[in-house]
Amino acid sequence: MIAKSFFALAVLLPTTVMAAVDPQHMYKPTFTVDKLPDKWEKGQVGTNRCDKWAPHNEKSMCQNAFINSVHDFCLWGPFKHNVDVGNEEKNMVAYCLKSGYGTRLIPDGTIKQAHFIKAKSFMQITGYGDFTKIGIKKKDAGGELDSHGADGYGNPPGGLVFSRTIPGTNKQFTQMHEWASFMSATEFSFRACFETAPEKLRLCPHQYDEMGARFSHPGDYGPGFDQCDSDDGQMPGWYRVKKNVNGKESISSSFFWQGDAHTPNPHKPGKTSNCKEYKTLHSGPVKVVPRALAAGPEITPGASKRAHHFGHH
Q: Which domain of life is it from (predicted)?
């Protein structure tokens, strides 16, 4: 999410102006999984050096999340129990389906339905579950976790996201800087954009914290477990407007700011293909374990630099 004051400018902006409208966007360093620091961002309550909890530990304070497939993904959850997500956004740690990352585990039976898609520009997992099992308060409507909080730091600060199933990366664990996740007591979504995606900031927005998962992450939230390829779909918050002036039709773009007088409908999900269905999901050992073999770079928490351009990495 970004600062609420940012939404006072309830205006429609063309794509070309978006480069300078986000004063909170901050440059985030790039890490590799074998050279992670203990802490790197101001306000970080956990750590990115998670080997001391390997293969997993229910008291882990690991803040590395991994998204690889419908069978191998992590979600953010509180390290304390019975709390509201919105009040604890900065106090989240990683819970994973698979053991081996040094994180806490998502207990078997927590995930009731899950749908993983791999699009041209991002990967996404959506679904339903009982997240009181990972500490979220019953009936909590939830909140947004993302790489850029209202103060420019992440929610949670220090949270990193990696995948080894990004096209073109030779199955190497690769960081994704632009990501957002919605967690409630029952529903979840997690979208992370590839570094090579030209529109990664628009396809992985972080300014719709009050709009919820289905607005920011259009997808399948219904029954079942599956994994599909997908089109990118439309950019959340961006809408094409048809105009007819003197008999000539033109198409322009409009941008929805959270808090505008009129709230448009969410976009439909992108078209899916090559879907594989599964009966259920289970925990177990991860196929490839990321090894932290060397001390990470010395980074002073809070030393992130403010970027001059929207989406510069």
A: Eukaryota
Burial readout 34-61 (b: 16 or more C-beta within 10 A, e: otherwise): eebbebbbbbbbbbbbbeebbebbeebb
Three-state DSSP class for residue 309: coil
List the chain domain ranges.
Answer: 4-285
Q: How far is CA 139 from CA 84, 90, 299, in A?
A: 9, 20, 39
Residue type, 110: T
Q: Give CA–CA dist 34/107, Å, rounded.
A: 27
Q: Enter the tokens of residue 183.
A: 């967690």
Q: How many residues does the chain have?
A: 313
pTM above 0.70, yes or no: yes
Q: Are 247 and 39 in contact (CB under 8 A)?
A: no
Sequential pLDDT tens for the chain (313 residues): 433 333 333 333 443 334 333 534 667 899 999 999 999 999 999 999 999 999 999 999 999 999 999 999 999 999 999 999 999 999 999 999 999 999 999 999 999 999 999 999 999 999 999 999 999 999 999 999 999 887 888 999 999 999 999 999 999 999 999 999 999 999 999 999 999 999 888 888 887 666 678 878 999 999 999 999 999 988 776 657 666 767 677 666 666 566 667 777 777 989 999 999 999 998 899 999 987 533 444 455 554 443 322 233 3
**Do residues 110 and 133 make contact, with C-beta atoms less than 8 angstroms apart?**
yes
- The SS3 of residue 19 is helix
